[in-house]
Design goal:
498 residues; Sodium/glucose cotransporter; two-stranded antiparallel sheet; 20 helices; 78% helix; globular; Na/solute_symporter; Sodium:Solute_Symporter
Length: 498
Amino acid sequence: METATIFALGLYFAAMIGIGLYAYRNTDESVSGYMLGGRKLGPGVTALSAGASDMSGWMLMGLPGAMYLTGLSSAWIAVGLLIGAYINYIVVAPRLRVYTEVAHDAITIPDYFEKRFEDKTRLLRVVSSLVIVIFFTLYTSSGVVGGGKLFESSFGLSYELGLYITAGVVVIYTLIGGFMAVSMTDFVQGCIMFISLVLVPVVALDHLGGFSEVKQVAESIDPQLINWVGASSAIAIVSALSWGLGYFGQPHIIVRFMAIRSVKDIKTARRIGMSWMLVTIVGALMTGFVGIAYVAQTKMTLSDPETIFIVFSQFLFHPFIAGFLLAAILAAIMSTISSQLLVTSSSLTEDFYKAFIKRDASQRELVLIGRLSVLAVALVAIALAYDRDSSVLQLVSNAWAGFGAAFGPLIILSLYWKRMTFAGALSGIVVGALTVLIWIYSPITINGASLSSIIYEIVPGFILSTLAIIVVSKFSRGPAPSVQALFSKMEQQLTEQR
């Protein structure tokens, strides 16, 4: 590896840790400050933080790899994500920002659920926290896998050492700086990703003679590669589009809506966030598509399609620029890992330690527990990532579906339906999560095909969770007058803040 490349990466690591130290010195040492930044995020930081934490390593590895393997038909995932993200800003963001503050300053998603339904049993908090810890540990491991692959293919280091370097840097700045460090580093990382996903496909296209030349080469390899439908069935296209359903239930994304400065800033954040997302996701798709022609023309052997972005950075750019581009992959990976670590840490701290172990714990003690939780979850994620054959996109898709089905219908209905009950909310989480797990791991097959290979598990999970919430709420005792009053207060404040 060139010295210039190593130097560029060293600058990136130093900058991330430096931001963590800055955030540590400027963040209130309270749980709200550490976990939610005091609800002071501006629209620009909110938008890029949500985008960067959303896209993760799959943006620069998983999605280009899928495009390389199947061609334009993979773009349906991107279409679904763009639609889902936009609707999330419109439907969820304003109400969640107001309601979580009105509901006695709820600072985690399980905390919001408990206060929204005045759950005295705390069962709703426990179940939702378990879902977060289980699925986020799996999700975090996908990012660590991406880091291991990067260091192995680019630096010649062992896969295992790559896992520890990736997780280690993230743990340092997340542990010391909390939510503000995560959000600020996400903003910088989002900028790096944006530049890289414009630069790489443009330079690669120019190197190969333009899009028409790339299209001809891809068509000569397999005509299905340039077909938007390809070999996909209608059900497969629905599965790809259904990725957009996952946005409504992703804690590491919607927590940004809880932390934004005001409802009025959400429109600006939406414009910035959607513009960023459109450019970067098109860049990722083009990277994979151009990679088809590049590998064919150079007659190289590409053992792992998810490393096509790395191949371009190594062969088409100056070593210093290559270091910047590799930093973009790390930025995508780290931005998501840090957000997931913090959300999981928040849940372990607020929803387990404070709720059940030590209710009178001081603010300083809770922040310490939060930092220890960051470290513990990271170590478990590293252990899971030791399976070097794990697909980044597959790990992400499983966790994405789990959150989308368990929390998506619940989040939306809790913000719009006053009649929704505690029993309905609990059944929605359980049914959604179990459906996804059964769909993925059940030995049931149809004509020899597994359930998840027929249709993406988020589709049945989301539908059944929604039905469970509605049916159980209809047949259970309605919410208490105080819950309805809280809902009315939320709607009144939402109108005033707009």
